[in-house]
Each structure stands twice: as C-alpha cells, then as structure tokens.
Amino acid sequence: MAASDVKLNKKYKIQTSIGDRIFDICNYTFMILLMIVTLYPFINVLAVSLNDAQDSLKGGIYLLPRVWSMDNYQYIFKEATIFHATLISILRTVIGTVLTVLCSAMVAFSISRQDFVLRKFVTVAFILTMYFNGGLIPTFLLMRDMNLVGSFWVYIWPGLIGVFNLIIIRSFIENLPESILESGKIDGAGDFRTFFSIVLPLTTPVLATVALFSGVSQWNSWFDVFLYNSSHIDLSTLQYELQKILQNSNTTAGTSGMDGMISGANGAQQNTVTPLSVRATMTIVASVPIIMVYPFLQKYFVKGMMVGGVKG
Questions:
Q1: Model confidence, pTM
Q2: Looking at the domain that runs over 75-238+280-308, which CATH code has it been given?
Q3: How far is CA 65 from the centre of its chain?
C-alpha cells in the first residue's frame, strides 16, 4: 500500500468520529423502520389475499399466509366480464395518459411564453376551475349533450387537461434556458417544431411525473363508469367490476347465515370467501399494475417534482 493511501485512510478514520457513526446508525435504523412501516401493510394485505378466507377470520395473519389458498382470486376472476373490463381499463389508462400529457404540455408551453398576450388571463381561468365546478348534475347534462354518455371517450375528454399538471409543466418549462428556445427560432423553427424537437425532450422528467399522476388516476377511476356507462357492460372497467364484486360480497354476507361467508365458484363449500378476503384480493389486483410501472418512472418522478415545484 502506498504512503498516500495510508494517509487517506488515517484521514478518513479521523473524520468518522463517534458522533458520525452514531448518526449513521440512527439514520440507517430510521430508514429501515420507515421501510418496514411502508411495506408491511401491502405485505399483510397480500398474505390475507393468499390465505384461506375462513382461516383469515381467526386473525393473526401478518407476513405470510397461514393456510395457502387461491380461492379468493378464483372468486374475483370467475366473472367472464373481468377480462374485458381489464382491457378497457388498460386502454383508457394508456390513451388517457398519452393525450393528457401531450395536451397539458402544449397548453403549458403556450402560457409559459412571455410574448403570449393572454397568458395571465388563461392561467387564472384554468386555476379558477380548481376551486369551482358546475356540480354533478350539470356535468352529467353536459356529457349527455356532447353525446359522450355511453361512449368510451367520456373517460378521456373531461380530464384531458389537469390544472395541477399544467402548473407543474409550466413551471418546469419556465426554468429552461431561454437561449435554447431562441436558438431554435434563429434556425427557423416554428412554435410546433420548437415544442416537439426542443421542449418535449428537455421536459422528460416532469412529463413522466404527470404521466404517473394521470395513469394512476385513470386506472383507479370507477365513479365515472357508474355515472355514464353503468348500463354498458362492454365499456365497464376493472375498477368498476371490482366495486360491484365487493358490493355483492357485502350484500351476500349480510343476508347469509354463514357468519359473513360467501359461497364461491359453483357454490362449493370448500371455495368460500369473505368480504375481508375479497377486499384484500381487490387491493392486490388493482395495485399490482401501478406498482410494476412506478420503478421505471421513479427517477423522473423525483426530479420532476423537485424542479417543477420551484415556481408557482
């Protein structure tokens, strides 16, 4: 080992005092506890969903199932409409997210330009919609008059531009160096060329953040299905079908004489579920797709929230 390396090691040992080591231990302990507190509810719900429903009523299930069983998932997926509803949920999530991100970014780019005369008026008009709305009945009448009731596009058009997403993207764009946009104009690029060739590639972090927000909202939404397409089975979504299953399980459990147990597929006694097991299984089924997507967007999500929240 060279003399310089020995000096560096001695210097490092001097710098890592007892106080620093105590701080590191406390820091690691806190992060481990935070991780346990964060992961335990999901692991516990997963264990309940994979446990026998009758055995779950006894309690005492924490990290692992006591009696392994797939009856809960068989009860959820025995409905023939569940797979078509999953397809509709995927379509509305993908299409809605892409269009929301694109349209929000275009409007945000417009109101971020200093030479846009009506930028303040448009910004205030959008912000007012965060505090006031027409109400449930006027909104339904508007959707009906626009011929969106009974249509797939009723899931897309009403939430095409979210004001919160708009403000985040606008703040991010305003932080971009003006010289980059001016160089594009000098080279002869118009507004559309500047937006698609310069602005979009530079705003990837905040667009990924908005995409995550919009995707989660679209995937978890079920009330709009209840309002506009409850009588159209071909337009039902996964969340709405799961909500109907949960409501049916609660109703059946309330009227049955089996202490809250519901007979599962083909009415077999050995395939029995409870509202508790149904809720746990529904949580896992609805959460897994989002959990699988989030790790790929995590680095963009953190950067987009930090930079996009600099300005109001």
A1: 0.75
A2: 1.10.3720.10
A3: 27
